[in-house]
Structures are given as C-alpha cells and as structure tokens.
C-alpha cells in the first residue's frame, strides 16, 4: 500500500495516508508533551545512590530549618540549605551559569519562577504613579514556548500582559518591557539572544527587563560554551535530571531586591516550595555531581562503562542517548525532502572538552511537501501526536516532537516515520497513486 | 518590680512593662505564624512507620502514573492515585467530609487551591459578555485569615477582587460574589456559616459562590459534628498532620466542571503538584488512618498508651496536647481581667463519641485593660510576637497567637504571661505604681 499526497493547501480536512505505516501496535504515540521520562533508565541503574529516605518528622516547618530547628538565613526563607548547595555545586561543575555572588530562589518548577520574575519586574515600577506603565508588555521571539501566553494572561493581571513575538514588538517610546529568552530554545533548539533593540530609550526608561530561560542549557542537549551570567536565569529539575514530577526549578538572580520580590511572589502563590522535593532534588543533583567528579576526564562521551563502584557520568549517558535518538530520527527522514529538521553547528563544549552537535529536547519537524499545510495534523494521521507550530507563534508547517520520552515511544515514532517515508519512496518509484490511504 | 499600665489610648508609643517577666531566656517568642511543628513529637515516635523511601527513578513523569507507566484517569491528571485513596479513607474514618461522588483536586497547599477555586468560579461567568461581572467580589466575614486579601489581589487580576468583610458586603443587585467560610475560623476558632444573605437575587443571578476552608475541621481542634458537604471544600496537610513543609492541600469538589477548571489553574500555575510530597502525604495519612483503626474505641481521649506494636491514635495524641496547652494558657490569664479568650461550647464529637470543647490552632487573645489599644504591640514588649487583630480585618484589641508551635515556645509564652499577670496582681495588692517598667 502506498501513500498519496494530494494538494491540500486549500483543504480544511487534510488527511494523511493511514495505510502508510504498519507497526506491531496501532496505539497513539503521544509526543505532544516534553515528558523527560527517558532519564528513568539511568536512575533505575543507580540503585540506592539516587534513593531518598524522608523520616516522618522531617521538614515539617514552613521554614527551611536545620535538624536543630535553626532557620536558614537565606532571602528565600523556604529554601533547604542542601538544595542551594547542590545547585551551586552542579553549576560550578558543569560551567553553565555564574552563581557566585548571586541569589538562588527555589520555585515549584520554572513556570512558577517565570511568573515570580515578571511579577518582580512589574513591581520595580511604582504601581500608583500617574504614568504607571502597567500592564507591562511581555514578549518573546517566535517560535516561543507554547505555555508562555496562557501563563502570562490567565489571571488577566493588571501588572503585565503578553504581547507576542518580540521580533515585531515596537511598543511606545520609553515604554518598559520584559523580554524572555529561552536558550536553547523551546521548540526549535537554537541558541538565542535578546532581539528587541530599543534605540533611543533614555537611561532608566524603556529599559529591557530580561528573563533567560536556561531549562535546556545542559550538556546532554547542547555545548556548554560559557557560564551564563544574566539578571534572571531560570533552570528546572525537569529538564536537567528528568524529574518533572517533583516540580522543582530555581532562579539565579543578580539583584537582591528582585530575589526578595520573587520570594514574596512564591510566598503569596504557594507559601513556599515542597521541602520533600527540594530534598530529593538535592540528593539527585548530588548524585549527578558525584558521577561527574568520579568520571571527569577521559570517559566522557567515549562510551566507556564506569567501574562497578562508580556511577556512570549522568551527562555522558544522557547525551549518548540523545545523540542516538537524533541520529535515528535524521536517518528516518533523510534523502527524501518530505520533512526537514534544523541543523545545529558544532560548537566547543567546555564541559566535555570536545566539539559537539546539539541534540535538543524537541525535534522541530518541518513538512516540506507541497500541498501539506499543517505538519501536526498530518502526523496525527500517522497516530503521532505532536504540538503544532501555531501554538508556538510559529508556522503550522512545523510541529514539535518530544525527544525525551520513553524509549518505546521514540522507537514507534521512528518506525512510523521510516515506514511512511519508504512507502512514499516506493510509490514514487512505481508511479502508483492512492487517494486517502485507500487500496487501489 | 511591678508593671504599670498607664492610659495610653492616645499615645502612639505605648510601651509594655519590660520588667514584667523574667524567664531564663531573653529570646523573642515568635508565635506570629501558625507553624504546626508541635506534631513533630508524634512523628518522631512513630519510627519507621512514618518514613518514606523514594527511589531515584520514581514519579519522574509530569503525569500521575502507576509503576508500569499507565496514567491515572482522574480529572486531576497530576494526582497520585494512592494520595487520593488515602484522602478519601481518612475523611471516611474521621467523618468530617463527604467524599463519595465528589472530585478530589490536589494542590500545592490550600492557598493554591483557594486561588484555583476563585479562578474557577470567576470563569463560570463568560468573560467577554457586555455585562461581564468581572472582577467578581470576594468576601469573608471578619476577622478573616490575614493572607486572604493579599493572595486575592497581588496580581491585580481582572477576574476577581477582594472586597473585605462579608458582614458589610452589599454589592449591587444580582451581582455574583464569592464568599469564603473558614470553619473553625482562623483566627478566632469559631464555627462559621455563610453570612451574606442576598435577598431578592433572581434564580441563577447574583448567586453566592461559596468556598469552605476546613483547614481546622479535624478532631484535635474541634468536635466533628457532621460530615461537611459543600460545593468546594479545602483541606490542608499542614494543619491536619503538621506537615506544612510539604505544601500539600486538597479540595473536595461537587461539580465536575469546577474540578476541571481548578485543575487547569494548577496546570497553568505550577504544572501540577510535587509527586514526592503527594507520596509522602499518602504515607503519613495512611499511618494516621492505621493508628485510628488500631485504636478506634475505648482508648480514644482516655490517655491509654498504645501497645508496643500499635501506633498511638494520632488525633488522640494531638488533641490531648492541644487541650493541655489551652488549659495552661487559660490558667495563666485567669481571674485577672487583663486578657480574655473566647469560650467555645462543648459539642458532641462523632469521631470520639464524646462531648468535647474546642482547642483551636490559634488563641485569639483580647486585651481588656483600659488604656491599651493594641494587643500585639503590648505583647511584643513582653517579647511575644503575635499577629495583630487589624491584619484580620478585626480589632487591634485582639492578637492571634499560634498554639501549634514547638513546646519550648509555648512554655515561654505561658511563663511570660503568668509572670506578667502575677506581677500585676501583686502590684495592685500593694498599691505600687511604676511607670514604664522603671524601678521606683
């Protein structure tokens, strides 16, 4: 059976050839979310090293306290001390962020910290002034993380407002604004810089307030080229180690007042952050840092198996797995021209000491075939659920596919794409045309 | 040395007699927050029964899944199944809420669920209608939990707005509103019912949207007179078991659509709720339910020590401790008329099968002495930090004192109050007057 692509540029009910794949399962492959469950395999292998025992009487207080009940003196009064220590340690080891003389603020995932950051920036302008700039515009270059618009606007806040693509943002003269920079970017994996260039803004007015989302600035996804050093930098446990269920993120913040206001936001929003998950994050980050220090030099990226007593370097394992997935995906769609994927230049990674490609958390797949308008709809007919480009303020010709889910889903994805592409190739060779996947 | 109370009704710098107490420590007794650390003693005694081991590979997904990766089919897609089961089980055992045919929604503490509930109620009215009632008024009878105004208004939402004391709320005809009912009430411990009575509102218009906050409706604080059965009922791990650091709360919700919208709020706010803390809450709630079932009948309230193999009934232990604290506090201020405390009628508790008094989580202490305007300021000069009545929309003659903090703080509180009261009694007897605590 061969698939046929008829011109559907003007069709609202574009259908992909359902007969184009024939794997053992007819199940839906849901790669819509970026659920980082691929890292489970590593954590299963670590045995007790990644386990955490929480005694029934531990961390019952609202406040972060040591075992004697003495409170942590951090600005972020609900942050467990060992969590902060392990955050600073892993950044030092990986070299992806400056943390010296910076404040750490823990959050219930980085999406809470994003809201804390826009809240703190908005409050840096007096609310009751006659020329109050509120709601302050929030922008991000498209394609941007699909949750940003809804997370910014769901409460119809008078403090800030989503204004879409930063590339087309003008605003009025001297109007302050908040620009989000996700780097590497979700959905497309590219390294990003701010794009709004406000010429003519006077000093202290119309200033850019930047939030750098570094969720994916870890060695398994991209080369670590320099320690990031920006005003507000967001990181998340989900994407760094794979523990999305713990809902832990952290911000590295330069300005004391901003760190205080972000902490205040989290106090009002959830009266702090789960201490159980902070303790777990501390344990997991420690396990990773230990694994890096035990396997620092020559084993990295080389595939050598760690000795019995040692843990395999987490980033080495994770990166090898990502590289293998990307290789298979690129191979599945190659030499055909039906789909394309972004190309990422090799860069020198200070962490590994090698030139490396990027292997992003998401594949930003573009359909190149004339006649297909919507990549996600097309893929859904292959029973591959993805997130369409429009949801990212981008083109519907693109779709975002999670590359960090469990192995059997990635296997099915690649099997279905390969089958479809090779069927199409055969049909083209034979000149057979079948409409809508029906047998001739 | 004797304290003197001069008339300071018009003085802005009222000072309490600093010489009025003389305990071994000069430290500040901070009972401003309701930090439920008193329950640590119970959990220390439970040994391994309250411990939780979390393997490194557990609950990494955003979704609630069983060990085979099958997703929980609950509306609340991030809720761990065992958490939900233990929530339903403990309500059944305690008899404080109807959960059959009700939806459970887990939250990052009940403060997040409060926001989820006002969001869901606000969205039950179309946003884009020309006669949109937004922002919808949110009210609560004073004195009310001091965090409600700030938590409602910090984002200057266009959906809802804090309108203060429900007793004086009128609104316009047929204007919908949200009324919060905290019962037993924070700060004053009384059982509450809705107070807004909107006569003349037409059917479906101007309807009351009620949120019942049942944080303190547990047997250690009050008699369980009937299973509560209201539209949206909020409970919290903090006050029921003492685990404030875990940031876990839950809502019991009648309407499916409301439960869905509350879940959506939590998705947008924090993409779910810490699974580590859900698992811990499940374990702790299970331990309590087991302790109740093992010691159901005659041991309850009678002070009998559980056999070696059994856990003491948690609610029995917690209630005895609360009763003892309240007895000592009432004793410290009695027969003097300087301070007063609310009196709570004895009620029949279905859980214990006995008539019992209430022993609220907070003491709502009122200063009765002519000349003292601000109870919290007065107490602060005895180095007792409390929260002043004004913060609850109430009288500054009252102050809220946490009764659930660690034992040594409660001991210091009672020691200082006793010393002050007995010094004052001696002075009155001797007719000695000393200004501002200075020696004569």
From TrEMBL, chains A, B:
One of its GO terms (biological process) is amino acid metabolic process. GO terms for molecular function: carbon-sulfur lyase activity; transaminase activity. Residues 29-420 form the Alliinase C-terminal domain. It comes from the Eukaryota. Pfam families: Alliinase_C. InterPro entries: Alliinase_C, Ethylene_sulfur-biosynth, PyrdxlP-dep_Trfase, PyrdxlP-dep_Trfase_major, PyrdxlP-dep_Trfase_small. The keyword Oxidoreductase does not apply. Keywords: Pyridoxal phosphate. Gene3D superfamilies: Aspartate Aminotransferase, domain 1, Type I PLP-dependent aspartate aminotransferase-like (Major domain). Belongs to the alliinase family. This is Alliinase C-terminal domain-containing protein. It comes from Protea cynaroides.
């Amino acid at each position: 059976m061969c698939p046929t692509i008829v011109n559907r540029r003007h069709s609202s009910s574009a259908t992909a050839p359902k007969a184009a794949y024939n794997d053992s399962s007819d199940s839906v492959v849901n790669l819509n979310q970026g659920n980082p469950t691929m890292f489970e395999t590593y954590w299963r292998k670590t045995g007790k090293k990644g386990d955490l025992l929480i005694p029934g009487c531990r961390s019952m207080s609202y406040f972060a306290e040591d075992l004697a009940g003495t409170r942590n003196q951090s600005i972020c009064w609900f942050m467990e001390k060992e969590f902060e220590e392990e955050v600073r340690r892993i950044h030092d080891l990986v070299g992806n962020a400056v943390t010296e003389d910076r404040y750490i603020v823990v959050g219930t995932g980085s999406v809470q910290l994003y809201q804390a950051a826009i809240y703190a920036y908005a409050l840096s302008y007096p609310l009751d002034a006659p020329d109050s700039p509120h709601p302050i515009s929030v922008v991000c270059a498209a394609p941007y993380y699909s949750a940003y618009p809804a997370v910014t606007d769901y409460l119809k806040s008078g403090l800030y407002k989503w204004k879409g693509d930063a590339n087309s943002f003008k605003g009025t003269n001297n109007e302050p604004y908040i620009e989000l920079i996700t780097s590497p970017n979700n959905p497309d994996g590219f390294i990003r810089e701010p794009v709004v260039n406000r010429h003519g803004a006077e000093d202290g007015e119309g200033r850019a307030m930047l939030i750098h989302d570094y969720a994916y600035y870890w060695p398994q996804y991209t080369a670590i080229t320099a320690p990031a050093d920006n005003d507000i930098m967001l990181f998340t446990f989900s994407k760094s180690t794979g523990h999305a269920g713990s809902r832990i993120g952290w911000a590295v913040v330069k300005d004391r007042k901003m760190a205080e206001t972000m902490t205040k936001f989290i106090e009002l929003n959830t009266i702090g952050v789960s201490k159980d998950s902070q303790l777990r994050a501390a344990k997991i980050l420690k396990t990773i840092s230990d694994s890096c220090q035990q396997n620092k030099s020559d084993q990295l990226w080389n595939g050598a198996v760690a000795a019995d007593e040692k843990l395999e370097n987490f980033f080495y394992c994770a990166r090898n797995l990502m590289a293998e997935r990307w290789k298979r995906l690129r191979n599945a769609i190659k030499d055909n021209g039906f789909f394309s994927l972004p190309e990422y230049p090799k860069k020198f990674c200070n962490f590994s000491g090698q030139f490396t490609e990027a292997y992003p958390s998401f594949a930003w797949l573009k359909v190149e075939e004339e006649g297909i308008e919507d990549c996600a709809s097309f893929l859904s007919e292959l029973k591959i659920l993805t997130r369409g480009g429009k949801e990212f303020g981008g083109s519907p010709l693109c779709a975002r596919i999670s590359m960090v889910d469990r192995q059997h889903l990635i296997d099915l994805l690649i099997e279905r794409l390969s089958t479809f592409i090779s069927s199409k190739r055969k049909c083209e060779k034979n000149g057979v045309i079948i409409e809508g996947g029906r047998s001739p």
